[in-house]
Design a protein that fits this description.
alpha/beta, 8 strands, binds magnesium ion, binds BIS(adenosine)-5'-pentaphosphate, Rossmann fold, 3-stranded antiparallel β-sheet, 5-stranded parallel β-sheet, binds zinc ion
C-alpha cells in the first residue's frame, strides 16, 4: 500500500470526525474535506444549492448523492489534494462510495486508509447536544468536555459560538437512525476491501488522536 494519506474518516454523528480531522490535517499537512462544512457554508451564503441542502439537513436526512458527489469531485480537483486529503463525512452511502471509486480510478488514485471511529449512542447524544462552533473560524467546542475560556466566545478568534441547527434532540435522533440505515453498511463495504481500521472513540481527544495516528503510520 502506498504511504500516501488519502483518508476516509467514518463514524456516526458526534463520533469526533471533525475534531480528529482538523488534527490529522495539521499533522500531515493535508486538507480536511468535510461535506457537512461545505453544505453549511453554502446554506449560510444562501446559494440555491445551500437552500436546497438545508431542507434535508434540518430534517436529519442525507442530501441527495448526486449533489454531494458533485461537490467532492470538484473539490478533489484542487491542487492542494494532490498529496493526500481527509474525507470527513463522505462517503455516507454505498452509492457515494462507488462514485468515489470511479472518480479516483479516473485519476489513477485510490483511498489508502479508512478509519472508523466507534462511540456508544448515549455518548454521541451527549457530545452533540453540548457542541458549540465558532461562527468565524469554525473551531469546535463542547460546553462540558472542551469548554471555551470565556462562555460563548472563541478562544482563537473571539468569534461568537453557536449551536448547529441539526443539533436539536429530535434531529439528532433522526441523524443517528439515518446513520444506522445508510452509512453503517459502509463499514462492511470497506472491510471487504481490506481497508477498514477501527478506533474506539471514547476517551480524551488526544488519546483518540494518538490511536488514529498509529493506524495511519501502519503501511
Ligand atoms: P456532518 O456535518 O458531516 O455531521 P455528522 O456526520 O452528523 O457529524 P458531526 O459533524 O455532527 O459529528 P463529528 O463526528 O464531526 O463530531 P465532532 O468532531 O463535531 O453532516 C451534517 C449533515 O449534512 C448531514 O446530516 C447531511 O444532511 C449532510 N451531509 C453531510 N455530508 C453528507 C454526505 N456525504 N451525503 C449526504 N448528506 C451529507 O464532535 C462532536 C462534539 O463532541 C464536539 O462538541 C466535540 O468538541 C466533542 N468531542 C469530540 N471528541 C470528543 C472526545 N473524545 N471526548 C469528548 N468530547 C468530544
Ligand atoms: Mg463534523
Ligand atoms: Zn473562532
Amino acid at each position: 500500500m502506498s504511504n500516501k494519506k488519502n483518508i476516509i474518516l467514518l463514524g456516526p454523528p458526534g463520533a469526533g470526525k471533525g475534531t480528529q480531522a482538523v488534527k490529522i490535517a495539521e499533522k500531515y499537512n493535508i486538507p480536511q474535506i468535510s461535506t457537512g462544512d461545505i453544505l453549511r457554508r453554502a446554506a449560510a451564503a444562501g446559494t440555491n444549492l445551500g437552500k436546497e441542502a438545508k431542507k434535508f439537513m434540518d430534517r436529519g436526512d442525507l442530501v441527495p448523492d448526486e449533489v454531494v458527489v458533485g461537490l467532492v469531485d470538484e473539490r478533489l480537483m484542487d491542487t492542494d489534494c494532490k498529496d493526500g486529503y481527509i474525507l470527513d463525512g463522505f462517503p455516507r452511502t454505498v452509492e457515494q462510495a462507488k462514485a468515489l471509486d470511479l472518480i479516483l480510478d479516473e485519476k489513477g488514485d485510490g483511498i489508502t486508509y479508512v478509519v472508523s471511529i466507534d462511540v456508544d449512542e448515549d455518548e454521541l447524544i451527549e457530545r452533540l447536544t453540548g457542541r458549540r462552533t465558532c461562527r468565524k473560524c469554525g473551531k469546535m467546542y463542547h460546553v462540558a468536555f472542551e469548554p471555551p475560556k470565556s462562555e460563548g466566545k472563541c478562544d482563537k478568534c473571539d468569534g461568537e459560538l453557536y449551536q448547529r441547527d441539526d443539533d436539536k434532540k429530535e434531529t439528532i435522533t433522526a441523524r443517528l437512525r439515518v446513520y444506522n440505515e445508510k452509512t453503517e453498511p459502509l463499514i462492511e463495504y470497506f472491510s471487504k476491501k481490506g481497508l477498514k481500521r477501527s478506533v474506539h472513540g471514547s476517551g480524551g481527544i488526544d488519546e483518540i488522536f494518538s490511536k488514529i495516528t498509529e493506524v495511519l503510520e501502519e503501511s
